[in-house]
Amino acid sequence: MESHVQPKLIIHGGAGSSLHGKGGLEAVRRSLHTVVEFVYSLLLSGATASEAVVQGCQMLEDNPRFNAGTGSVLQSDGQIRMSASLMDGASGRFSGVINISRVKNPIELAQFLQNSPDRVLSDFGSAELAREMQLPSYNALTDLRLQEWIQERQDNFQSTMANVVAEPEILETSNAGRGTIGVVALDAYARVAAGTSTGGKGFERIGRVSDSAMPAGNYATSNAGVSCTGIGEDIIDECLAPRIVVRVTDGMSLKEAMQRSFGEAHQNKRDLGAIALDVSGALAWGKTSEILLAAYHDGEKIGDTLEWTGNELIGYC
């Protein structure tokens, strides 16, 4: 295949309430920009959109600051259960794992399942697959997440959700956060892919299923790709990712599709965010929450949304 398209890339590390202090902001910016820089270089050297998405998700899963992979939040029983999905727009295939424990990179299992007749597995099936793939057992627990859980347990699980970014100062406050990571890429061959991974809400009922391993929260076609973050139930209720992608497929510009979809989400009092790109190379992001931790490469430079606190629902370039 001949490459003829300028690759584009957008990633996120969650959405939620304000970042604590400038130190938190700069640390998160460094983390996101490092991933964008590395993954964009892969796209420039000919990586497919799916390969780039998986690599980006792995890097974000491995960063204990974000709620996915290492640094995932604990559920009500003190266990970590992670979910992740990958959708390749070129093949039109969605694959994912739901509530998997003891693996380092849930996105790897989603990638493996792309070529399987059974493409979405829940907890037992995911664990069985990890054994078949001979993935080493891995403990994703960090001290900060454990402290967060212990503190919350002392408060009898008052919080609806754990914090979006794991930072020491956060333990003093319990403002809710909505942590997920996601990557959407357009490669040099005009293919689109999206990946999303999460540790869940934190403190949730055992067996709760996140939007991250559903098309509702992660969707791509040959026209566009979207990864969502925020309150999973709100994303599922809006069916947000497919809603945006279908609108683009039906002829709306990405900007219009985002504007319309986020207008509806805002009206419905949803708490969520999303990153998106289309096959023409347009990039967009949106939020109904206070902040969205997103960064992107527009082909010329890296930008981010960390200081975007305005009331407008979407941004684009």
Question: Can you offer a commentary on this structure?
Answer:
Helix 2 (49-61) runs antiparallel to helix 3. The strands form 2 sheets. Strands 1, 2, 3, 4, 5, 6, 7, 12 and 13 form a 9-stranded mixed sheet that branches. By secondary structure, this protein is of the alpha+beta class. The chain has helices spanning 21-44, 49-61, 106-113, 123-132, 143-154, 232-238, 240-249, 254-267; strands spanning 8-16, 82-88, 93-100, 120-121, 177-178, 181-186, 192-198, 218-220, 224-230, 272-278, 283-287, 291-297, 302-304, 314-316. A hairpin with a 5-residue loop joins strand 6 and strand 7 (192-198). It contains 8 helices and 14 strands. 31% of the residues lie in helices and 24% in strands.
The strand count comes to 14
H-E order:
EHHEEHEHHEEEEEHHHEEEEE
Name the poorly predicted regions: 171-177
Main sheet: strands, sense, barrel: 9 strands, mixed
* Percentage of residues in helical conformation: 25-40%
Mean pLDDT: 93
Helical stretch count?
A: 8
Please tell me what the overall shape is. globular
Strand content: 15-25%
C-alpha Rg (nearest Å): 18 Å
Distance between the termini: 27 Å
Give the helix/strand class.
alpha+beta
